[in-house]
Design goal:
The structure holds two protein chains of two kinds. Chain A is about 45% helix and about 15% strand. By secondary structure, chain A is an alpha/beta fold. The chains are: A alpha/beta, B mainly alpha.
Chain lengths: ~250, ~80
């Protein structure tokens, strides 16, 4: 089950904790992967670790021309096809709304939501032609529950869910599925910097009483990318240790 | 029928799974040939490929009948 041999996958934000784990997991299932992000060095290191069937294409998700180039170069690197697109790239610019600047709002929406839409649109053409596609958007629990200080991030992540449901309906007849994975609190370099008190506060809200791992998110992505998940579309898979049940 | 018209007809028949006899010049893709909006996008993509041309979105919107497609391709084809 969940064999991805012969499939071509593009993972954005692959230099991050969750993105890297997703790329490793897809690769381990047999997929060829293109790693994208802004940090070339980290991407090359991951490519080196994966060995064969790995490519790097750097791109900025707030640059429309760069996104089109990314789709083209990723397809070209992987023998002219792109079967699995994992939109994991995302940024935060946290601030309470009273103090949030227009730039902070716009930048987060631009990268997390608009950039993702553009990349999916660029990838769609080939998927439609080949009558196969798996689009997996990494959203967040806060896109559903909200989070103080993250009005911009939560709006972008909620936007991904609504967008995915619309795309899922548009593309279902072409055997292209569009789903979201919504992580809760996951142990990554981003959460490593939290103090023990902060971690304790977070864990008080997580019935599983621990942070999730990037591998646990990646496993959900592998499932949604697989042939076995062909009948799952427009859904959001919450992986959060029971933190929110929706 | 010209060569362009024949090739267009072949693409439409293959793509929409309709009878060749239905693919008349004034046949509308959506109303007469049962295409949905995604089908029309795919037809345009197929025409672009077959005739090595680019059909911009605003032009694609105006291509509603088989004849529209043939005329557009004839006046824009490179060869």
């Amino acid at each position: 089950m969940f064999d991805l041999t012969g499939k071509a996958a593009l993972v954005t934000g692959a230099s991050g904790g969750i993105g890297g784990a997703i790329a490793r997991a897809l690769h381990a299932q047999g997929a060829t992967v293109t790693l994208s992000g802004t940090r070339a060095e980290a991407l090359e290191a991951l490519k080196g670790e994966l060995g064969e069937r790995a490519h790097v294409v750097t791109a900025k998700m707030d640059d429309a021309a760069d996104i089109d180039r990314l789709a083209k170069e990723a397809e070209a690197a992987m023998g002219g096809k792109l079967d699995i697109l994992v939109n994991n790239a995302g940024i935060t610019r946290d601030n309470i709304s009273m103090r949030m600047k227009d730039e902070e709002w716009e930048k987060v929406l631009q990268v997390n939501l608009t950039g993702t839409f553009r990349l999916i649109r660029a990838a769609m053409r080939g998927m439609m032609k080949r009558r196969f596609g798996r689009v997996i958007n990494i959203t967040s629990i806060v896109g559903v529950t909200g989070n103080p200080g993250q009005a911009n991030y939560a709006a972008a992540k909620a936007g991904l869910i609504g967008m995915s449901k619309s795309l899922a309906q548009e593309l279902a007849s072409r055997s292209i599925t569009v789903n979201c994975v919504a992580p809760g609190f996951i142990a990554t370099p981003m959460t490593d910097v939290l103090t023990d008190d902060q971690k304790k506060g977070i864990l008080g809200r997580v019935p599983a009483d621990r942070l999730g791992t990037a591998q646990e998110i990646a496993a959900g992505v592998v499932y949604l990318a697989s042939d076995e998940a062909a009948y799952v579309t427009g859904q959001t898979l919450h992986i959060n240790g029971g933190m929110a049940m929706i | 029928m010209s060569d362009v018209a024949e090739r267009v007809k072949k693409i439409v028949v293959e793509h929409l799974g309709v009878e060749a006899a239905q693919v008349k010049e004034d046949a509308k893709f959506i109303d007469d040939l049962g295409a949905d909006s995604l089908d029309t996008v795919e037809l345009v993509m197929a025409f672009e490929e077959e005739f090595s041309i680019e059909i911009p979105d605003d032009a694609a919107e105006k291509i509603q009948t088989v004849g529209d497609a043939v005329n557009f391709i004839k006046s824009n084809a490179k060869s």
